[in-house]
Amino acid sequence: MTAARQPLLRVSGLQKLFPIRKGFLKRTVGHVRAVDGVNFHIDEGETLGLVGESGCGKTTTARCILRAIEPTAGEVFMRVADGSVVEVGKLRRAELRALRREMQMIFQDPFTSLNPRMTLLDLVGEPLLVHGLRSRREREERVADLLRRVGLRPEYMRRFPHAFSGGERQRIGIARALALHPRLVVADEPVSALDVSVQAQILNLLQDLQSELRLTYLFVAHDLSVVRHISNRVAVMYVGRMVELAGTEELFSRPKHPYTAALLSAVPEPDPRMRSQRIVLQGEVANPAAPPGGCYFHPRCPHAIEVCRTQAPTWQELSPGHFVGCHRAEELELPGVE
Amino acid sequence: MTGAGQPLLSVRNLKTYFTQDEGTVMAVDGVSFEMAPGATLGIVGESGCGKSITARSIMRIVDRPGRIVDGEIHFKRPAGGDGPGEVVDLATLEPNGALMRSIRGAEIALIFQEPMSSFSPVHTVGSQIIEAIQLHQPLGRQAARERAIEMLRRVGVSSPEERVDQLSNQLSGGLRQRAMIAMALSCEPTLLIADEPTTALDVTTQTQILDLMRRLQREDGMAIMLITHDLGVVAEMATDVVVMYLGRVVEQAPVDAIFHDPKHPYTRALLRSIPRIRSRTRERLTPIAGAVPHPYDRPTGCPFHPRCPEFMAGKCDRETPTLRSVGDHHAVSCFLYE
By three-state DSSP, how is residue A34 classified? Predict the structure, then answer.
């Protein structure tokens, strides 16, 4: 986006295991490997799309970054406002609280993520109050400004969320996330609960806010069409691991991982003349509590060979900025979308 | 919708209203369409457009206080032994009467969006399919069980002899949806109503289920009414499309005309607003202004007029347009074409 590309966020070896407890003594009998060795960075002002199917660990990754849950291993580095880099996992409570002003989250469901007993003023003003803006008049001014920014009328600030439609509620959630001038916004499926005609409004709003406020987005989604419209780069996850990461155009037109190619091919296109032969994957997503040996994708992969069954692929940079974890990445010719 | 022969289903001026203290919600307000035997009719629209209530009205399972207040639902029953099948008006039948019960589940079957909640969690999958079979067919328990296993095998459930004795929560979302389809098709319906059958599924699982539905339709020849908000799924599956908005049909046409020669401003706007996988990266979308109105705040005149770019003051907000033919099997409800 800008000439000087500086990572705002860097994630290294991130891992989150959830213990499986059984029996009377609640002994740990195994682990769900929700996130297992994830590496990436996000440059300042860019949008990284994080895609994958349910249970692939994309939301857990997002929550570990915000330290809403504690990762099992790995590091998360964030460049803060004064230019210094902090390791999010090493922060004490008070320091973490200060950092949270800089990283905010937008949630999927605008119907359950807003407290129904709070007015817009309270909802959007709450983060301001928590972070020390005591004057009610100043808070009201700031809330009015935020509501205007997200396309809501400030006169509505004494109303309750139930009076608003899904799209408007998502705008309220966005205003709340922006209240403290964050630099990183983690958006977890922000449009998937909305009507199709409203999705476009919210996606455009997120883009406008990004350029006005110089925001950096981690955009978590399962819908590849949506991701294409918002992301500069895209990362694909499968069963807790990252399988591919590249610039959006590159990833969509020249996928290097068979899973990415299958995902792209699976999206039904709103054009009956494009009905085409889809890559129909056999079987089901692997169980993250007992993943298969080797590459986790091999039982469903149409290109799997012997080495895929026995050895986990390494994460390699195939061309500048195009990372992939597949034994056969170099030789396979996979279909993308233009 | 094809001219030749008698339609399998003919819905005429259907009105299903919900009357409560707060007012009357006209969930379905004068809907008409026809389906030919073996066709796939896509019914698309956003939340509150009445697409699911239309389906539930046909099945006569509208929850109170909903009631069919007007209209006809002519369904051509399958020929029994000798002679052609009789045509019955489902709208006049007693919802729990013997005739409706012999049609529902046997001649018209329904699959829902939520494979999680459509099976009882305390009975095995098999026992529920067996119950459905024995309700409509004179088969003994063992024969019905064999039929259930055979159906599970047909829908691609591996080791069906074991799956038949499992509880639904032991199956993944994709397998549950397959089991649901097995149950729906066990009595060989001539009409399958699929209400958002893949919305809760991941995209690679969606591909499998759509593939399966197409194969079963080829083998059994049943007609499918596919209700969805996803224009991609409609383009992929449907032969004809009905577009609904706030309880009314705004446009209906063969699938190619809907996507390549849409007439109604809502259909056009909807097609412009959706994110597409074959778009330029980070391309801005063209949203539809506003949101779907609350059902108690139904606009006067054409229900789409407050959001319509072609709005004609004094006309669209005063009078209600009716569905008129604009071409080969193509009808639209808009004053632009009167």
Answer: strand
